[in-house]
Amino acid sequence: MAGSGKPIDRNRRALFTAILASTAVLLPGLGWRRLLADSAPLSTDSPYGDLLPANEHGLRLPRGFSARVLALSGQKVAATDYVWPYAPDGAGVFAIPDGWVLVCNAELKTGQGGASAIRFSMRGEIVAAYPVLTGTTRNCAGGVTPWGTWLSCEEFAGGQVWECDPLGHTAAIVRPALGRFAHEAAAVDPLTGHVYLTEDDMHGRLYRFSPEKKADLSAGRLEVAAVDAGRVHWLTASPEQPYREADATIFRRGEGAWLAGRTLYLTTTADHRLWTLDVDSGQLEVCYDGETAGTAGVLREPDNVTVHAKRGTVFVAEDSDDLQLVLLSGCSGRQVVAPFLQLVGHDRSELTGPVFSPDGQRLYFSTQRGRDGRGMTFEIT
C-alpha cells in the first residue's frame, strides 16, 4: 500500500521488473498451489462471468452483483452523525449477537489516522458508525484476532500495532512487543496464538510474534523468517527496530496476510507474488508470480488478501496497476486467475480492505481516494 498517500507511478513497474528479474527464485515443491506449473491448465475466465461496463461509481462487476456505497469520506455515514474519514484502507469484520461490525483503517498522516467502525443489524441495515482508534499515523492494514479485537497497523519506520475494540467500548491499546517497523498486515493463528506480521518495505521481512499467554499481546517473543530450501526457520528479532541482518529473508514490500486453516497467504507487491506458508510445517511456496505467469499478468502489485471461508477462493486487491480485485481458485480441474471486479477512473486511488461478512454473502472493500480524492467504502451482494 502506498503509505505516502501519493499516487503510484505505474512506470516504476518496469524498473521493479528489471531489478528483481535477476533475484527472483521460484521455490520447489509447489504442489497443487503452483499456478505457474507448465502442466497446470490456466484460465482467466472467471466463474462469475465477464465484467460489465462501469456503473455510476466507476465500478465494474459481473452480471448479477450489485453495489451499495456505505460511506463516503467527509460525509456522515447513513443516518448516523459520524463522518467517515479519508483514505479508508485495511478492514476486518466481526460477528456480534445482533449483527456484525465492519472496522476500517484510515491511512492518514501524523496523528490523523486511526480506525472506524460501521455496525449492521442482522438484516444488513446500518445502525451505528463510530471511531475505535484515533490520533495514530498511517494506519494501513491489520487483522482480526480470534478473541474479537482488531489489530490496526501503522505503516512507517517506527510504526506500531494497536489493539482495538470493534464496538468502541474500550480504548485502543498499543502493543509495542509486536515491533516497531513499517507494519502492514497481521494474521493470528487461533491454535497457537502466533501473530504473523508483514513489513511494507523493499527490504522488508516476515515476522512472527509468540505471546507469553494466548490472547494476550502485552508480552512475548518477536521472530523473523529465514528461508532455507523452501522451509521457514525463525530467528530472534528485537521489537525496537526493523530487522536488517543478512541471515533473514527479504520479502519485497510485504503487504496482505490472511490465515485460512493452516495456510498463511501473504503478498509481496514489488515482485507481484502471492505466497503460501504452511504454519505447521514451515513450508513456503510461491502460489502466483505475476512476472512469469502465463496469464498475461492478470494480477499485478498484489496488496490486501482475503479468503472466502466456505468456497476457499482467494481474493487479492491490486495496489495500483488496473485496480482489480482478482480471484484465484480451482475450477473443473483448471487453475483460475481472473478479475472479480474493477475500478475505472480511480486512477489516483488504491483498492483496499476486501473482506466478507460473517455469512460470506457480502463483500466489503474501499477505494482509498476514489475519483476525486474522497474515499468510498462499498458493499457488494
What report would you give on this structure?
By secondary structure, the protein is mainly β. The chain is built from one helix and 27 strands. The protein has one helix spanning 12-21, and strands at residues 42-43, 59-60, 67-72, 88-96, 99-106, 113-121, 126-136, 139-144, 150-154, 161-164, 173-174, 183-188, 195-199, 206-213, 216-228, 231-236, 254-260, 263-268, 273-278, 284-289, 302-307, 314-318, 324-331, 334-343, 351-356, 363-367, 376-380. The strands form six sheets. Strands 1, 2, 21, 22, 23 and 24 form a six-stranded mixed β-sheet that branches. A five-stranded antiparallel β-sheet has the order 12-13-14-15-16, with no helix packed on it. Strands 3-27-26-25 form a four-stranded antiparallel β-sheet, with no helix packed on it. The radius of gyration is 19 Å and the shape is globular. The two termini are 26 Å apart.
Summed up, the helix count is 1
Give the % helix: under 10%
Element pattern in H and E: HEEEEEEEEEEEEEEEEEEEEEEEEEEE
Largest pleated sheet: 6 strands, mixed
* CA-based shape: globular
Structural class: mainly beta
Rg result: 19 Å
Strands, count: 27
Which spans of ≥5 residues are poorly predicted at pLDDT below 50? 1-39
How much of the sequence lies in strands comes to: over 45%
How far the N terminus sits from the C terminus, by CA atoms, comes to 26 Å
Mean pLDDT: 89
